[in-house]
């Protein structure tokens, strides 16, 4: 599960969550619980659009799902098909106007869109559309898709969507709602997780399977790369927006985005993280007294490391659960005097001990340095850092907002330089091959069916072609 | 750390947290961070009173610390001595008027009080005071103390406090503030944890030591049973409100109230919980595939159980971090259809497995039954329940709001009946002696210096006398 | 009706409004509408306490009646007897803790008090009570009354109230509620208006009769000086807290406090104001083109002046209705550039005209100077100021917070100096005798039954005695 | 000034207010005060967009100007050119998404629009645009204008605006902002008031001149019918969007929309209303004891009536100033028992009197009936109703949302039937000719330069042509 104490807010791009229910009178309520289970994918804003077959009912707002919706308001969201969205954004000032689902009127009536992902060529398309007279009210990629759909002359919505997406390159899990149809589309490489489930006779869609568990729905299957699913009064049918390509799930979903209780492409996230920890212990063993993880995203890997190494697993770091938007940040003066915010090292656990600190990634290195200092101040005699993902050395084109290359510590320093920079006694990363094997898909798909580009620079073949075509 | 998914809101009494800073210009800010670290002890309301030596500045409100205080408001709380309080209450409707610190004017000027605890004879004292013409604005025990102080004719405040507390029987960590003094008092048996620390030249007081770590303060020592500490312009001095009695810390503080990173009476809470898990594994071993704890309070014990038993520790249960006051509870219909709220079982971890579920206590048994069902629905083939505290069979007179005896499952059923009631394959509790040894105070004090009355019915001797005197 | 543009917020003391309903299932709702009609008497906070015969239901908050109560909340206020209060306070920082009705527990059960008025000897009583061990949570005079009631050993509440009020000197309209009685008391000189009415079989009490009209109740009569009315299950009976004294209604109630549609002591407020304007025109005639009043409190007097003088009445000054608590005050720089806030002069009405500006009072003179400048900037060639009350030269001991004598312009300057100071072409005040006759009570009571002390220094005889006794 | 007690909320269409400042560092603050002075033109939402020459800063919200903007927020609106809007809407549910100024990105950069008015052919244009692929996010007419501007291929913005407006028929005062230009356009018949002023070197634009007075600006002139004013770094220049046509100001602006201190087309609104009252007294004299106006919009006419008839003017009806959005409406049961909401009749003024009640208009007649009943219940012996506008018998195409013809009482009943329906003793309306003369423009323009279509059915010639072309 994403941990804001590790990757700071400004380091991560628009990683969002989408959810939909088709064909239940309590569609909006179920969507509420679904979004609540996806809350870790975005805390900036939340929204639900529901159709009663005649018109839309919309509620969107900034804040957590529990802040945006109240008992009263949820009961105004009447209708049996709903789509919802939780949003995580890069820039603080975006606010309510970018809250999804976006809602428009176009020639075929009302249209709502919710998307998790990033378009590689959004900027070019936007300029082109503006030159043709389009006006934009948001800065989201999703509005570009809406314009393309509206401009298509195809009489059927699904053909208009197909035509629109043919112009688009990127990673997305996309939901489109009208008063008589719901359309769900997975990008051609399935970079973003997207699953189809069912609850009774109704269909549900979700960025992660954990949301199915929460509402008592059953997973049917993951949506295929390039697949478009249409649900309307005729029932559910499936189509394609692109020719079949191998699945290339973003490896970072396993490393820290997804909730441990979700399954992606059939693999449980907690289990894959624990295997990464075990692998790490085998690749880079160390003599120590205790193993601790950086909560919450590294807990599973730390448990795995402890198990494989035989070193006891302890709660050496505690996270304050109550840090929210309105938390008053300590002044610089107070910080220097030692006022902590989110993480505390547990003195009684680490004092006089050699500590293995397992974390899921290092981006800039600043957070690692801070946590290591916490541990030493609490009395740790040695701090050995083990990272359950390989060094991040390449930018991501598909929605993970890695900072500029010159700020990626692993792209600019040797392992030894990094160790000194963060102040660890030893430092080791898992190997790319070790990670692939730990995630556990032993298929003959490229990289086991995962995108590891940020670690290896090896983009899945199809993606490379796209990038070339974009840059042309 | 208290877990609301285990003990439901209505099962627990007024367990609060107090914090104070004496002698720093940023007293209110430090108190804010201190209260934030004590947030797990009370989420209903929060308050800070600060004195600038001439007058009080007060802010109190319902909600979390981060909701009650904003950047603007904290800067209005000027002065170099502050006391703060977080409150947990039994009844939903109490609201703002019971938010502490309470503030009064009396003959000696302004008076603020903040208390964590429960008075055994509050009701009797209240009736007596009303018959003498006192009027009450709150339903807190703390207001009784204030009236007793105000009615004392002793010229010095500390003598008035001593006189007031001589009428009182109960458990409390009490802070009293005037414009020129701060007084801290620990009850005669030290049932509630209460520590003295320092940061630079300033003194700090806290219900738990974790709050010292957060602000960079050092623990000096725990306050002694019956000790009264006075800080004023003369410095710090200590006095007594009662003759020396053995320490009898509430064992439940170790079991689940306190934060794992706190030390109480010199013992780290996480470490003591882990030892309880180890002890439990030794006392009641079982063959199984995975060990899981009920988050968050049972995590440490589960780790200990896993370590001692050699069964792998896994995240078999996941708690949604975003459940807050404004969460819309699912209707009965939705619950029956399987909508979960706070806890999810991790299918990928427990499916097809024999699971040891470690929990910290069983009160009514309803929550255990619910969690066991969650695990079975997620595919667990067996569920073995291990409880890291002994059966609760007696009411608490000192602030833990155990429900009426007829609702205490362990007071009314045999172990086998309980096992059937909650639906476990096997069920075992730690022994009282095992718990005492696990907590780890090998002194010759009675019960190792702890109050175990709710488990054993054996009240510390001095307490029994008091109860007799009260009931007379 | 009080006009904040004339007397600024900080110049006026605690003038409040009280309302009660006894014996109707919709008591709280009717109290809401009653308080709403009394909103002009206090905008700082509002509150209602209702009893269902068993316990109190309380709601209080800062802000307007419409801000404090919502549809939901009013329906929680169940019970058939309610008292309510709107509060106007002198100091900004007082906040919620001073919101009335105050609610206490005392030996006889629950007790609520709401009072409009001011006690002359509140401070002395408070000190005395504190020395006897009382603690205070508010800075209101009303809490002093509560303590005195609680300390009385009289077995019947009405005797306890009588005993309590025997210690008190001042002006008040007081409502006291328990779970089985409502008691209403008017001070011995009836300085504050207080009326008894009925709606169906139920009794109502109000600071002003306008609140009766709004709920469709009928006025029975004004409450007599020193009268105590008790309503309980036996019905209504009347008693006395003091021997009969002549009525001495505060003349300022007629001048600007009360709503024009209220009747006080049988005299309509608008009609009395209009007669003051007519009297003023007769006493101090002037040749001019238009008459305008300073909205809203001087409108009636301006109409009277126009009618008596034959000069057309015009809307020469317009008040912005939307200035509220959250209005952003213009910076000094913007003010100097001419940004106005609440009042605008109507250029099309006053340009090139000789204007008579009728206002109800001059306290410091600063507001008059500002308004005269507005009129001149809008093109008025002459501005003749006529004030419908005599010069204020003495402090008030009974609740009107006249500023210190050295800030009362009329106490320090001659009429000519004042004229120059405010920049008027001519300036005249109504004579005290003219005002008495205009109000219109031609009785042989002293001063026609009014208190004119702030104008004349002549305190009603009984009051003088009291003041002596206080100052002794 | 519009009085909601007369025309109920649902009877009036989108009558809004616009304001702009060009060329001052405090542009947003001045716009705040300007919008505050225009608050009577719309209370649903408010917004300001300011440019710092590089980018827009936007704040919009539902509620009053004082609710939408706080001190902090206004200081974030940096830049020296600002446009603002207050909105009044017909449908309750519209909410924030329709709050103006609207903001878009288009090919030429950022674009903001604020408009007061109504387009006759908005619906047709919208359908046409959607068929060409446009998507709409609001239901405002203003968004149609934005799309037309964006689709124009004209390289200069002012030509694009001209081209866009050539498709549009309707009444509007329109403000358009980019990062380097402000454009203001008045519709071809100047149906909506729109004025140009200056403050120092900066230009200001406003729906009404009262906003100029409030910020200390000077009126330069009213904007001409069909005039387009462009202000940019070259200074101010003027252009035309249509060939010259006679001014046809909506007469209802004088009757009740505008503030009495505004001048429209050189005529003061209060003065014109007073003349209407005088004219009415001459046209339909009556013997009576008092004249009263329905507050606030009919006060001026009532004063005029009183002056011309010699009958004293009194405050016979009082409006509660504190009725706001959150006022709890009395239940039907309470209403029947006599609970009033906004208006009270002053018993002391009307009891036993023959009352002339002057009102500004009758639409459905329901409000008049209610007020007459109030007066009779308060003791009026006769109620003579005089209306300062002619009977409304025709729908308005230009933004005044007259209800359907079958609900217009004057379109369906004779004068005598109306009199009986509302319960008056006599009833008279001003004549159309009398109204024209009272407003006072003795030009040879058609109808003195006013649109009287709702009274006479005579639409200004050019308008009729347009309507034909639309209906073709």
Automatic annotation (TrEMBL), chains A, B, C, D:
Keyword Iron: yes
Pathway(s) of this molecule: Purine metabolism; IMP biosynthesis via de novo pathway; N(1)-(5-phospho-D-ribosyl)glycinamide from 5-phospho-alpha-D-ribose 1-diphosphate: step 1/2
Catalytic residues identified in the record: 16 (nucleophile)
Keywords linked to the UniProt accession: 4Fe-4S, Glutamine amidotransferase, Glycosyltransferase, Iron, Iron-sulfur, Magnesium, Metal-binding, Purine biosynthesis, Transferase
GO process annotations (BP): 'de novo' IMP biosynthetic process; purine nucleobase biosynthetic process
Source species, domain of life: Bacteria
Official protein name in the record: Amidophosphoribosyltransferase
Organism for this UniProt entry: Polycladospora coralii
Originating gene: purF
């Amino acid at each position: 599960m994403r941990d804001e104490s590790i990757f700071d807010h400004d380091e991560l791009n628009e990683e969002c969550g989408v959810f939909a229910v088709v064909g239940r009178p309590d569609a909006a309520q179920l969507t509420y619980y679904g979004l609540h289970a996806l809350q870790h994918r975005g805390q900036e804003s939340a929204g639900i659009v529901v159709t009663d077959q005649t018109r839309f009912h919309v509620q969107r707002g900034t804040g957590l799902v529990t802040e945006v919706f109240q008992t009263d308001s949820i009961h105004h969201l009447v209708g049996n098909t709903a789509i919802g969205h939780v949003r995580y954004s890069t820039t603080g000032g975006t606010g309510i106007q970018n809250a999804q689902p976006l809602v428009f009127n176009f020639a075929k009536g009302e249209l709502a869109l919710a998307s998790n992902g990033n378009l590689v060529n959004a900027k070019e398309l936007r300029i082109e559309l503006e030159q043709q007279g389009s006006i934009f009210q948001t800065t989201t990629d999703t509005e570009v898709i809406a314009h393309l759909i509206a401009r298509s002359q195809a009489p059927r919505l699904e053909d208009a969507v197909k035509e629109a997406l043919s112009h688009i390159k990127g990673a997305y899990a996309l939901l489109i709602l009208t008063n008589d149809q719901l359309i769900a589309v997975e990008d051609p490489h399935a970079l973003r997780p997207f699953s189809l489930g069912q609850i009774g006779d109704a269909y549900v869609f979700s960025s992660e399977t954990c949301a199915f568990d929460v509402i008592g729905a059953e997973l049917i299957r993951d949506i295929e790369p390039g697949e478009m699913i249409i649900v309307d009064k005729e029932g559910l049918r499936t189509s394609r927006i692109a020719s079949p390509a191998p699945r290339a799930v973003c490896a970072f979903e396993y490393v820290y985005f997804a909730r441990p209780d979700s399954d992606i492409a059939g693999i449980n996230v907690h289990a894959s993280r624990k295997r990464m920890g075990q692998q790490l212990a085998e690749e880079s063993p160390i003599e120590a007294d205790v193993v601790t993880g950086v909560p919450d995203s590294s807990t599973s890997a730390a448990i795995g490391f402890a198990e494989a190494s035989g070193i006891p697993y302890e709660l050496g770091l505690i996270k304050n659960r109550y840090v929210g938007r309105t938390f008053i940040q300590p002044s610089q003066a107070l910080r220097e005097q030692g006022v902590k915010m989110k993480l505390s090292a547990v003195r009684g656990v680490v004092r006089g001990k050699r500590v293995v600190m397992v974390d899921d990634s290092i981006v800039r290195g600043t957070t690692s340095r801070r946590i290591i200092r916490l541990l030493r101040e609490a009395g740790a005699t040695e701090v050995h850092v083990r990272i359950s993902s390989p060094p991040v050395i390449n930018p991501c084109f598909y929605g993970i907002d890695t900072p500029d290359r010159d700020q990626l510590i692993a792209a600019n320093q040797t392992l030894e330089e990094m160790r000194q920079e963060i102040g660890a006694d030893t430092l080791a990363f898992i190997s790319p091959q070790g990670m692939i094997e730990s995630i556990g898909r032993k298929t003959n798909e490229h990289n086991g069916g995962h995108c590891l580009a940020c670690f290896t620079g090896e983009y899945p073949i199809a993606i490379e072609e796209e990038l070339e075509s974009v840059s042309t």
